[in-house]
Amino acid sequence: MSPTSDVLLTVRGIDKIFPGVRALSGIDVDLRAGEVHALVGENGAGKSTLTRIIAGLETPNAGSMTLDGAAHRPTSRREAEAQGVRMVMQELNLISSLTVAENIFIDRLPSRLGFIDYATLNEKAKEAAGRVGLANVDPSLPVGSLGVGQQQMVEIAMGLSRRCRVLVLDEPTASLTDSEVTLLFAQIRRLQAEGVGVIYISHRIEEVLAIADRVTVLRDGCVVATRQAGDLKPDDVIYLMVGRDLEQEELAPRSARGDLALRAVSLSDGDKVRDVSFEAYRGEILGVAGLMGSGRTETMRLIFGADPLEAGQLYLHGEQTPATIRTPREAVRRGIALLTEDRKEQGLLLSLPVRANVSLTHLAEVSTLGWVDVPRERSVARNYVESLAIRCASCEQTVGNLSGGNQQKVVIAKWLFRDCDILIFDEPTRGIDVGAKFEIYRMLADLAEKGKAILFVSSDLKELMAICNRIMVLSAGRVAGTFARPDWSEETIMAAAFSEYISGESSGNGIG
Ligand SMILES: Nc1ncnc2c1ncn2[C@@H]1O[C@H](COP(=O)(O)OP(=O)(O)OP(=O)(O)O)[C@@H](O)[C@H]1O
Ligand SMILES: [Mg+2]
Question: What pTM value is reported for the model?
Answer without folding.
Answer: 0.72
